Amino acid sequence: MPLQRFIALPGYVALAAAVVLALAWPAAAETARYWPLLAGLVLLGLPHGAVDHHVPERLGTPSRRAPLLIWYVALTAAGIALWWIAPWMALALFLVVAAVHWGAGDVWFALNVSARARFLRPWRVAAFIAARGLLPVALPLLIHPAAAAEGTGAILRAVGVESSGWAPSGVWRLAGLIAVAVAVAAAVGASVLDHRASPDPRAMRIDTAEILLLTVTMLVVPPVFAVGVYFVSWHAARHVARLMTSSPAQARLIDAGRVPAALLAWHREAAPMTLVSLAGLGILAALVWRMPVKPDAVVGSALALIAALTLPHALVVAWMDRVELGDASRRPAPVRHGDRVLGTAPGLAATRGTAH
Q1: How many Å apart are CA 281 and CA 273, to the nearest integer?
Q2: Are strands 335-337 and 340-342 parallel, antiparallel or unpaired?
Q3: What single DSSP character describes residue 348?
Q4: Count of domains forming the chain
C-alpha cells in the first residue's frame, strides 16, 4: 500500500537512524537533542492537528466549523492557563493524555495500513494502546532520568517556574519499568494470539517489530531527541495519513500512488491553522522569555503550546476512533486486495467504493 511506503517506512528509517547515531556518535545525538522537534514543528508537528475543525464533515457528520473552533481555542487557552496556575498538574495531565493519545493513535494505522488482525478481546486493544503509549512517554523518563528532568525542566522554566525538572526515582521508577515491561509483553502476546488465524503472517511481524523498534529507540537514544524523532516521523505522520484518507480528493491521489501530491494538498489545507499556531507560539514566547534565547527556551515554549493543544486534539481523535473504528475487538478482519487493505474503516477510499 502506498501509505506503508511513504508514511511507515520513513518513520522506521528515522527511528533506526536515531539509534545508530546514538550508538555510533552519542555526543552528536546529545548536542542535537532539540533539533528533531524544532525542525519537524512546522512540517508535521503543529500541522498534524491543524485540520481538526474539518474532521466532522469529513466523516459525514454535519457540523459548523465556527463553534468547533471556539471550543477548541477555549480548551487550548484553558490548558495554557493551567501551566501558569498549576504547572505541575499541567505536566502530569500532559504526560497522561499524551500516553493515551499516542498509544491509541497507532490503532487506526495498524488496522488499516499495516493490516493487523482484528483485536479479538478488549484487553488486547488495551495492551496495544498501553505499550504504544508508555514506550515513547514513560520509558524515556524511566531510563534516562537526568536527561528527562532536563526536558521537563525546559517546559516548566518556559512558563516561569524555576525548576530543574522532574523524573521518577526510587520505587516509582522500578514500578514504572515493571508496568512498561508488562504492557510490552502483553501487547506482543496479544499480537501473537490475534494473528494465529490470520492469513497474512507479515502483519504480525510488522506489529511486533514496531514495538521492538520503539523499545530500542527509547532505551538507547537521548530522551528529548528520541521523543522529537518519534513525534514528528511516527505519531504526527500517521495521523496525517489518517486525515488524508478521510478527504475524497486526497484519498484518490493515495489510491493512484501519488502520496506526495496528497501530502502537498493536505499541507495547503492545514496551512492557515498552522500559521495561527505559530503565531500563538510567538506570543507565548514573547510573554515568557525572560532568559537568553537558546534552544531549550524555544523547545520549552513549543512543548508548552503542544501540551495545551494536545487535550482538544486528543478529544477530536477519540471521536474519530468512535466513528471510524467503534469497538476494535469486534471489527471484521481486514480483507487484502492486491497491495491494499479493504473493508477496514470508513475513512479509506476503498470503503467509499473507489477501490473496487
Answers
A1: 12
A2: antiparallel
A3: S
A4: 1
Q: Has residue 108 got a pLDDT over 80?
A: yes
Q: Report pTM.
A: 0.85
Exposed, middle or buried, 201 (CB in 10 Å: 0-12/13-18/19+)?
A: exposed
Residue 335: per-residue pLDDT:
38
Percentage of the residues of the chain whose pLDDT score is greater than 90: 46
Range of the domain at 62: 2-352
Q: Got the DSSP string for 123-175?
A: HHHHHHHHHHHHHHHHHHHHH-HHHHHHHHHHHHHHTT---------HHHHHH
pLDDT tops 50 at residue 100: yes
Interatomic CA distance for residues 120 and 331, integer angstroms: 9
Nearest to 176 by CA among 149, 142, 215: 142
pLDDT for 75 = 92
Among candidate residues 148, 137, 140, 151, the one with its CA nearest the CA of residue 218: 140
Positive or negative, the CA dihedral 279, 281, 284, 290 is: negative
Between the alpha carbon of residue 280 and those of residues 137, 158, 166, 183, 307, the distances in Å are 25, 14, 26, 37, 13
